[in-house]
Each structure stands twice: as structure tokens, then as C-alpha cells.
Specification:
Number of domains: 1
CATH architecture: 2-Layer Sandwich
Structural class: alpha+beta
Order of helices and strands: HHEHHEEHEE
Helix content: 25-40%
Shape: globular
Distance between the termini: 70 Å
Strand content: 25-35%
Largest sheet: 5 strands, antiparallel
Number of strands: 5
Number of helices: 5
Length: 159
Amino acid sequence: MKNDTPDTDMASRTTQMRPTPHSARRAAEQMSTRRVLVSDRSAPGVARRLVREVAAGLPYAVIERAELAVSELVTNAVRHGSEPGSNIDVVIDRSGEQLAIVVSDRGRVPSHRDDDDAGGYGLDIVREIADDVEVDVGAGWTVRALFTLQPPRRRTDDS
């Protein structure tokens, strides 16, 4: 069957389907990935790579803080998760002016930090470096660390 559509019409349709620079930039600003990691020694490194993939192109300071946060959270899940080899759910979401990291596991809730334990500061570190942190303890842990991509506006004497 012969196509009666002139080549110029086909070219214009193809051009209309290409993303505009604005839509391509918007697509780069919105990216999300979810992975289920096995609770083992390799999990923090895998999670850091996920952050680098989703955060590519963001300011280095944001990527560096986000990598540290996901490393601490996944390390906590490995150390305190329910069983070796259990699942750790990691979501990295870049949307608009925010980068969110969500780590969930079925770990037990520690009653207190043991002063003799050399570790136990991971969540405190994440609270210090993230712009916002939410912790949900139910049938395990879910921690959401939020990073703002734009520096906060400076207040002036007029505001």
C-alpha cells in the first residue's frame, strides 16, 4: 500500500514529537528510581550509585550530602535489619526543587543507644545533613530524607 502523505508532512509531524528544550529540561528535573536491595555489605554502595544516577547534574554539595545520607540509612538497615539477606527498599526521587531519599526495612526498633557501641549515630548524621527528615516506625523502619536543591533565600531586614 502506497503512502500518500508528502514527505514534508511526515517531517513536520516528527519535529512536533521531539521534546522542546523546556520539556527536556523538565524531564531531567524529574526522575525517580526504586530498588529492592538485599541486606548485605554491598547494599550501601549500590544505594550511593542510585543517588548519583538520579542526582546527576545537581550541585556537588547536594549529591555529596545525599550519598552520605543514603549510605548511613542503608547501613543502618543492614546492621539493624531483621535478618541478613532480608530486603531493603530504597527510593530516590528527584522532583522540581527537591531530592528525596526513602529507605525502608523490616528492622527492629532499638530501645536505646548503647554508649559502649562505636556506632549508632547514622540517623543523627542524616538529621544534621538533610533539610528535613521523617521517621515512621511500624512493622519496621521507613526514613525519608529531603534535600532542597536551591539554597534558602536570605532574609533581608525588610522581610
